[in-house]
Each structure stands twice: as C-alpha cells, then as structure tokens.
Design goal:
It contains 7 helices and 29 strands. The chain has about 425 residues and is mainly beta. The chain folds into 3 domains: about 160 residues, hypothetical protein (bacova_03559) (Immunoglobulin-like); about 120 residues, Sandwich (Immunoglobulin-like); about 130 residues, Immunoglobulin-like (Sandwich), CATH 2.60.40. Strand 28 and strand 29 form a beta hairpin. Helix 1 packs across helix 3. The N and C termini lie far apart (about 110 Å).
C-alpha cells in the first residue's frame, strides 16, 4: 500500500513540475504515459498575456498517435486542480467559464491539432482585478470518446495559469556595462530591452540621455564615472524585433571628444518616460561605457621641423633623423637601420590610430593631404615626405598648395621588428 501511495505522488510530481515541457521522441525515456493521445505541453503552464490586448489566444497542441480520426473532449476537471493544490501547497481557483472560451469537443484528423483557449483579458482585469487574476487557472482533462483509445493521467492533463501583466520593458539591470573595442570608426552603443506583449508602439515611450545625472549618481554610489561632454554622443535608432520581443536602442559616439585612454569609465544615464508601459528595473538605465585602448604604442616620439617658402615646384628640403637614437629604441643597431631594405615607414593618419602602409610617393615615402592623411598624389595633396639614406628625409610641397603663414603637421612611424618610433613633421611656410 505504501508503495502504491509513493508511486501516485511521483506521478503527480511529474505532472506538476513539467511546466512547458514539450513531448519529443525521447518522451518514453522520461515518462511512463502512453502516447496514443496527449497534450504536447502538459502539466502546469503559464498563459502569459498583457493588458494591451482585449483578448489572448493560448494554444493547446494535441498529439494523436496515428492520425486516425478521433473524437475527443476537453473538460475542465476540478479534481486535477485539487490534486495540484494538495501537492504544491497552493490555493489556485478555477477561472469561471464566462472569462474564456474553449472548444470542448474536437474531431482530430491529424497527428497534431491545435485548439485555443481565448481569454477575455479586459473582462478578467475589470471584474477580477489584475493582481487577483493571478490566482486563477483552467485545469483541463483531455479525454478520447473512443473506448479503445488509451488516455494517460499525466499527458492528458494541462493546468493553464492566467498570467496577465501590464506591458513592460525589461532591461538586464539598472547599470548596463558596455565595452568599446574600436574607437577609430564612430562606435555604436547598443542597449537591449525585452517586452512582454504584442504590437509594441515605440511612439508610446521616450528615451532621453541625461548626463546631468552623473554627478548625483557618483555621489550616491561613491563612484568616479565621467560625464559625456556635449556633442560626444547622439541618438541613432530604436529597432524592434517582433520575433524575439526585443528592442535595440542605439547611440553613436564621437570618440575624438572622449578620453578613450583614461582609467575611468563614462556613464550615460538614459531616462525612459511612458504613460503606457512600465520600465524595469528602473525608469533610468545607466550605460557604463569603457574603452579598450586602440592607440599604437611608440618607443619614442620626436618632432622635426622644416621651414619653407611657398613654391610652384616639387623642390625638396632635407631633415635628418637621429638613427643612433632610433636604433636604441627599436632594439637594433644603427648599421642595421642604414641598410635601406630594412627601412619601413608607416604614415600615421590624423585619428592617431590608423596607418597607411602602402607608399604613395617614392618609397619609402608618402604624399599627405592638408587633413594630415596619406591620401596619395592628387589635387588635394599638400606635401610629400620621402626617406633618402642615412637618416635623411626629403620634404617638399605640392605646387601652389601653400601661402605664407601656413602651418601643417604630418606624422610617420619608423618600424622595425614590431617596434615603432614616431616622427611628427611640422611644415612652416614663411
């Protein structure tokens, strides 16, 4: 007798903890019920719906073993609920039939048949109340009307819980950490939110960056976040993925206005306002933004200056770099650097992070534009820098590109064995 009672409770336990389990080909390995007729999802399960909708259809999928025509009945069964409440120590009640519709008699003509429970959300909330509605379930027994069809007490039972919620946007946390790997292009910050309802309308909420809150946040939390300066960020877009019930909110950064090499992170508080939707866990979501350094590492940085008059030809002026000094920094010898085939230069673009490695003037050398980038020889060219021999750089201008008083700076890196020395070359027009 004790063994029989224990077995009964094990079966009930299997029923009551199998919420949202789906039957598959391995079901016989984990349950003992017969597979002639059963709910694909059996046991306790939540019908999650939102107050944004007047009605909601929760789909029950019924499996029929061999697709032979079969008449079945879906019956609200109080005993199923009594057993559940007894085992789980809960006090759920049966939702009155006036709050939903369910087709009680079906003819199955396929291996899988779907039938809905249509909940009247508006009526449930108005008459029972949103909070109280969570106390209700619909306990359903699937029964074949054919005498020789096997119905199992586990697979043929479903307890559908009424889970109505206000429409809510869910963020992972009040503080969302983001790390920017690439600061060369304008980085895009993306923060994600889930929502628990259908047909979201992005016009029913606003999001506004509020850097003025950073000081208050730091004082309250003993932190040292930096505030994004004006012009360093801009709203980009809100994208909706209906299949995932997910929002993607994007901001674009201008990293040139930020200290991307500092040790402190930036904080961008985003204020959400909505009369329709709830925002969780808070109406202010803080983006904690840090940067991985992308600046090249130089063993040394040196300044070279050439003073030249305006010119209408390509005449070059010589400037000398200290090869002995460079050799020490590059962990080689001056004799090695005097071998022309060992000399490699990169042009450093004006973002201070990217290089032009393909020579655009006589190698090793580059044509630079007025913006400081090595953009090749064209009508926008300003000056060229070419390495000669023994540490000598020839520096000349594009004809009629300068006037007296102009000042320009371009930069190159001398590269050897993975190490670099930087030279900032200043062109002053007298």
């Amino acid at each position: 007798m004790n063994k029989l009672i224990l077995y009964t409770y094990l079966l009930l336990g299997c029923l009551f903890v199998s919420c949202n389990d789906s039957i598959d080909e391995t079901v016989n390995e984990r349950t003992s019920f017969n597979l002639d007729l059963y709910f694909e999802t059996y046991g306790f399960q939540k019908a999650e719906m939102s107050t944004t909708e007047d009605e909601f259809s929760y789909i029950l999928k019924i499996k029929n073993k061999d697709a032979a025509p079969l008449d079945v009945t879906l019956k609200v069964d109080e005993q199923i609920l009594n057993d559940y409440n007894s085992v789980q120590k809960t006090d759920y009640k049966i939702l009155p039939a006036s709050y939903y519709t369910l087709t009680e008699s079906l003819k199955l003509n396929a291996i899988e048949t779907s039938t809905p429970i249509v909940f009247n959300i508006q009526k449930i909330v108005d008459e029972l109340g949103l909070e109280a509605s969570a106390n209700y379930v619909v306990p359903i027994k699937l029964q074949s009307n054919t005498a020789d069809s096997n119905n199992d007490s586990i697979g043929s039972q479903a307890i559908v819980h009424v889970a109505i919620a206000d429409p809510t946007l869910f963020f992972d946390d009040k503080v969302v950490k983001l790390v920017v790997d690439d600061t060369v292009a304008k980085p895009i910050l993306k923060v994600y939110a889930k929502y628990n309802f259908n047909n979201i309308d992005v016009s029913k909420f606003t999001v506004q960056a509020n850097p003025d809150k950073v000081a208050t946040y730091n004082a309250a939390n003993n932190t040292n976040y930096l505030s994004f300066p004006a012009g360093s960020y801009s709203f980009k877009s809100i994208e909706v993925d209906k299949s995932k019930h997910q929002l993607t909110i994007s901001y674009e950064l201008d990293s040139k206005l930020l200290d991307t090499e500092g040790i402190n992170s930036y904080l961008l508080p985003l204020d959400f306002v909505s009369a329709e939707y709830i925002i969780q866990p808070d109406t202010t979501i803080n983006l904690d933004v840090s940067f991985k350094s992308t600046k090249p590492v130089y063993e040394g940085v040196f300044d070279l200056t050439t003073n030249q008059p305006p010119t209408n030809d390509y005449f070059g002026y010589q400037v000398t770099i200290d090869l002995s000094q460079a050799a020490k920094l590059l962990k080689t010898t001056e004799d090695e650097l005097k071998i022309r085939s060992n000399i490699v230069f990169y042009a450093i673009n004006n973002d201070d992070r990217t290089f032009m490695k393909d020579y655009t003037a006589n190698p090793p050398g580059f044509w630079f534009s007025k913006n400081g980038n090595a953009e090749g020889y064209n009508d926008n060219s300003l000056m060229y820098v070419e390495y000669d021999n023994d540490g000598i750089l020839n520096i000349g201008q594009f004809p009629d590109a300068t006037v007296s008083g102009d000042k320009y700076t371009v930069s190159m890196a001398l590269v050897y064995n993975g190490l670099m020395v930087r030279y900032n070359i200043h062109l002053n027009i007298n």
